[in-house]
Design a protein that fits this description.
The protein is an alpha+beta fold. The protein folds into two domains: 256 residues, L-amino peptidase D-ALA esterase/amidase, CATH 3.60.70.12; 112 residues, Ubiquitin-like (UB roll) (Roll). The protein is built from twelve helices and 15 strands. Strands 1, 2, 3, 4, 5, 6, 7 and 9 form an eight-stranded mixed β-sheet that branches. A seven-stranded mixed β-sheet has the order 8-15-10-14-11-12-13. Strand 3, helix 2 and strand 4 form a beta-alpha-beta unit. It starts with 11 loop residues before the first strand and ends with a helix.
């Protein structure tokens, strides 16, 4: 069962400090493992990917002992200097921890196109390493935030082979959320004993169903990174097969953590007032179901209608129509739901009379489900998005001021 707090996982430490990248807030975090970790990751497919992404994509091939994350500056579109600065961060952290820079992953988030204040970061690294601890791990979710309004963290705990398996997750993300791999930044730590290729395949599968199914504003970040580290300290039988019961148990638990983080990112979308979930069922294929769900939650007209609490269901049919999938609009059934209330809007393509009072009540909620049956097959998919408010424009018109 998902919990909102982070668990103490033996061997993992962390810390977050203010290194003066940002004006006042924590802006530098480190996750450290006493033992080498099996690492898996998925990264942005934006062609203008940031320097830290390039380095982490290479280093993640190795056993990993640390991740360094800074917020307030994305170190993206910064040329050769950006690569040099990211390498310097890895090297300085490695020196301070007595490990190699190849055992370090790096992630950055914030303003694009500005050089890092390396003297401040160097001082911050020295400060952060002095106070790495199990308790300090809890400050990392704060240190990675930019325009986020709150921390995004959770944990899960299960038994595998009578061994206590723990999973911690943290994420940041508020704007520039339209992943084509994972999210803005998300980090998961666990003690499960698992083979590297199995963990990598599992992460890719889960990210395709969670972080790749969320959108705030349709912008795929230059810095997207989702990383899982396992120090393999649990005594469970090594998970080296996708057919084993141990694999299935861990898959379910990891999915719950990553899905929870993905939803938290959308709920905290810049200026968002509502979480919108699109559930597609009875579609002709999984790929079609995913395209249909994403088309709904990425439509600016749909998002604006939900902000205005307007049951403008024609915009949903319009979005489905340009999703690139085949279906018959005369067969579609559409419902809006929230809590225990629901209204039937379309019944096999025919508009249905619904209670206006119930509709108003549903549209006023901060979490609304768009339930669509396509009547073309047996496949289903979910996507998560948010409404589009005035505050989104305000935040992104003066991003440097809020960061």
């Amino acid at each position: 069962m998902i919990k909102e707090n982070l668990l103490k996982i033996e061997g993992f430490k962390g810390n977050g400090v203010h290194s003066k990248i940002k004006f006042k807030k924590l802006d530098l975090g480190v996750i450290y493992s006493v033992d080498s970790c099996t690492a898996a990751g998925v990264f942005t497919q934006n062609k203008a990917c940031a320097a830290p992404v390039k380095i982490s994509k290479e280093n993640i091939k190795n056993p990993i002992k640390a991740i360094i994350i800074n917020s307030g500056n994305a170190n993206a579109c910064t040329g050769s200097q950006g690569i040099a600065d990211a390498n310097q961060m890895c090297q300085e952290l490695a020196n301070a921890l007595d490990i190699t820079p190849e055992e370090v992953l790096i992630a950055s988030t914030g303003i694009i196109g500005k050089p890092l204040p390396m003297s401040n970061i160097s001082s911050g690294i020295q400060s952060i390493v002095k106070n790495l601890s199990y308790d300090g791990f809890n400050s990392v979710p704060t240190a990675i935030l930019t325009t986020d309004l709150y921390e995004k963290k959770c944990s899960n705990q299960i038994l595998i082979n009578d061994c206590d398996i723990k999973i911690n997750g943290m994420a940041k993300g508020s704007g520039m959320i339209h992943p084509n791999m994972a999210t803005t930044l998300a980090f998961v730590t666990t003690n499960v004993n698992i083979k590297k290729n199995i963990l990598q395949d599992l992460l890719k599968e889960i990210s395709d169903l969670t972080f790749n199914m969320i959108s705030v504003d349709g912008d795929t970040s230059t810095n997207d990174s989702l990383i899982v580290l396992s120090n393999n300290s649990a005594k469970n039988q090594l998970i080296d097969s996708k057919n084993s019961p141990e694999y299935k148990l861990f898959k379910e638990a990891l999915y719950e953590v990553i899905e929870d983080l993905a939803i938290k990112v959308v709920k905290d979308g810049e200026g968002a007032t509502k979480l919108i979930t699109a559930l597609i069922s009875d579609s002709s294929s999984l790929e079609d179901a995913k395209k249909q769900a994403k088309a709904i939650i990425t439509s600016n007209l749909v998002k604006a209608a939900f902000f205005g609490e307007d049951v403008n269901w024609g915009r949903i049919l319009c979005a489905l129509g340009y999703s690139g999938t085949d279906f018959d609009s005369d067969q579609v059934t559409l419902k809006f739901k929230s809590n225990n209330k629901e209204i039937l809007i379309l019944d096999n393509g025919t508009p249905h009379d619904y209670d206006q009072i119930v509709a108003k009540e549903i549209m006023s909620k901060d979490s609304i489900l768009i339930d669509v049956s396509m009547k073309t097959g047996i496949h289903s998919a979910k996507a998560w998005g948010c409404d589009l408010s005035y505050d989104y424009v305000k935040i992104n018109a003066c991003y440097e001021d809020v960061n």
